[in-house]
Design goal:
Number of domains of chain A: 3
CATH architecture of the largest domain in chain A: 3-Layer(bba) Sandwich
Largest sheet of chain A: 5 strands, parallel
Oligomer: heterodimer
CATH topology of the largest domain in chain A: FAD/NAD(P)-binding domain
Largest interface: A-B, 27 and 19 residues
Distance between the termini of chain A: 46 Å
CATH class of the largest domain in chain A: Alpha Beta
Largest sheet of chain B: 2 strands, antiparallel
Helix content of chain B: 25-40%
Order of helices and strands of chain B: HHEHHHE
CATH class of the domain at 2-6 and 23-78 in chain B: Alpha Beta
Number of strands of chain B: 2
Structural class of chain A: alpha/beta
Structural class of chain B: alpha+beta
Shape of chain B: globular
CATH architecture of the domain at 2-6 and 23-78 in chain B: 2-Layer Sandwich
Helix content of chain A: 25-40%
Strand order of the largest sheet of chain B: 1-2
Shape of chain A: globular
Strand content of chain B: 5-15%
């Protein structure tokens, strides 16, 4: 049996580990054009700020890889020859597979303005991108950041930490408006301003201006001009679908897979950012661009490839991130609608967050400790926590389990209700009932 | 600020140092490695998190560097010593 995994991200490595946990003898080959193999992609943000060294981004040791007993092949898969069960690598050599996993990820949506190809226009997909940014980020020079969501902030904070002056362009009137509420956006924006970022609301990029092939400034839709030495963009990501164009595998915005992470070809699986996964609970196929689902999907794909039938059950979307220095947890459904700064979905985003049912918002806390709950008739359907994270685990559990919160619902809805106390107390009693 | 937070609730610093361990909530972790990178004695904290184990390394000083620096709130101190007196 030969398992071939295309992609060296977390979905890919998790699949290798899962396959090996079941099949100790089968041949496993991972193939990727990433020169670095598996490393923590979310960690790139902290590499940019200088909080860690790039060597620290690699979670696995050589010994671990040796124990997994698989081969890493550096190359670019140029075609999938389904009828031959084979891959074409770099347009010439062939590699035969029995089971194939497409863990090929997503990449930054390209910037669609004149001048987008100039030197100094940067994005953050890979370690090479991060190194490229650091090479060009000169203290005292000026950068403009466009886009929304988590990646745009990571770029902003990284460039700021490297001593650049940063202008952040927002198309609308506030940051990440389809996930955060007005207050939360304000908290983030105020902190950015305190750190020295210049925010420009209602500002849309029209053109990147260059001199001698390098960025020298930008022009906005309203003809305002800003001088800069770098333009960093994060306007969304797109699943990498080029490779399956000629394969007839079913696709929508991503590669469609069932709950076993299997595509319409029973020998081909997909997992991670590229996979659009069928959710038996809602009957919908959804894209996630989160690290933990990619990890779980890779595991499930690997187990199924090795013959252990396992279903992927999508849990309540859950993400932890840091927004302008504030640890922030986003659970379940917290936002709605469309974000003008994004095309497609944001990295670190889940579409479920915007499928707002009949939910009512209760809110408490100030600045660094902030909690927002979304409450339906009997349950909590979403929560956002900024700063103090004590309640994040209880909330995650209660949201995932659709705990009946009727006993405290009215109390939660009262103006200035002590949300944290109510939730903490309820959690204790709810947990006790589970233990019975 | 974060360092002070570690010792809040009713666990005093002394109790933590003598009976506590660094524990993790691995579903929050993205394996970035800031914890291992900052450990003054070079414990691979991240590997413990990956295995969902407390940092049960005999050399762990419970100094709190990893807890304070984790950007995603993965790590915290908890009393895991079976023989420690249970708190009310």
């Amino acid at each position: 049996m030969r398992y071939v995994i295309i992609g060296a991200g977390v979905a890919g490595i998790s699949a290798v580990e899962a396959i090996r946990s079941v099949d100790t003898v089968g041949e496993i080959i991972m193939i990727s054009d990433d020169p670095h193999g598996y490393y923590s992609r979310p960690g790139l943000a902290y590499f940019l700020t200088g909080e860690l060294h790039d060597k620290a981004l690699f979670p696995r040791t050589k010994e671990h890889y040796k124990r997994l007993n698989f081969n890493y092949l550096r190359g670019r898969v140029t075609r999938i020859l389904r009828s031959d069960h084979a891959l074409l690598i770099d347009g010439k050599s062939r590699l035969v597979y029995d089971k194939l996993l497409l863990a090929i990820g997503a990449r930054a949506t390209p910037l669609d303005v004149p001048g987008a190809k100039l030197e100094g226009v940067v994005k953050l997909d890979h370690l090479e991108d991060a190194k490229n940014i650091l090479k060009q980020a000169k203290r005292g020079k000026t950068a403009v950041v466009v886009g929304g969501g988590i990646t745009a902030l990571e770029l902003t904070e990284g460039l700021l930490a490297r001593g650049m002056k940063v202008h952040y362009l927002l198309r609308g009137d506030r940051y990440w408006s389809n996930v955060l509420d007005k207050h939360e956006s304000e908290v983030v924006e105020n902190r950015l301003e305190e750190e020295g970022v210049t925010l420009h609301h209602h500002s849309e990029l029209k053109e990147v201006i260059g001199r001698h092939g390098r960025v020298s400034g930008v022009v906005l839709q309203d003809e305002r001009a800003l001088k800069c030495d770098m333009l960093a963009y994060a306007v969304g990501i797109r699943p990498c679908l080029e490779l399956i164009q000629e394969t007839n595998l079913a696709k929508d915005r991503g590669i469609l897979v069932n709950e076993h992470m299997q595509t319409t070809d029973p020998n081909i699986y997909a997992a991670g950012d590229v996979a659009q996964v069928f959710d038996p609970l809602t009957g919908k196929s959804v894209l996630d661009s989160l690290w933990n689902p990619a990890h779980e999907q890779g595991q499930v794909a690997g187990l199924n490839m090795a013959g252990r039938k396992t279903a992927y059950l999508k849990s309540a979307p859950f993400n932890v991130t840091r927004l302008a220095g504030l640890t922030t947890t986003i659970i379940g459904v917290v936002g709605h609608g469309k974000d003008d700064d994004m095309i497609g979905i944001a990295r670190g985003d889940s579409e479920t967050w915007r499928q707002l049912p009949e939910a009512i918002v209760a809110q408490s806390g100030f600045d660094v400790n902030h909690m927002r709950l979304l409450i339906s008739e009997k349950n909590l359907v979403g929560a956002i926590l900024m700063g103090d994270q004590t309640l994040s685990r209880p909330l995650q559990k209660m949201i995932a389990a659709k705990a009946d919160i009727s006993p405290i619902r009215d109390l939660l809805m009262q103006p200035n209700a002590p949300l944290a106390d109510l939730i903490a107390q309820f959690w204790m009693s709810w947990r006790a009932t589970l233990a019975l | 600020m974060a360092l002070l937070n570690i010792f809040k609730n009713d666990t005093s610093k002394r109790v933590v140092l003598t009976t506590g361990r660094v524990v993790s909530e691995s579903s929050r972790c993205v394996q970035c490695g800031i914890c291992s990178y900052n450990c003054p004695i070079g414990i691979d904290v991240r590997a413990h998190v990956w295995r969902s184990e407390p940092v049960n390394h005999s050399e762990c000083l419970t100094c709190g560097e990893c807890v304070a620096r984790c950007p995603r709130g993965v790590l915290s101190f908890a009393q895991t010593d079976l023989f420690a007196r249970r708190k009310e």
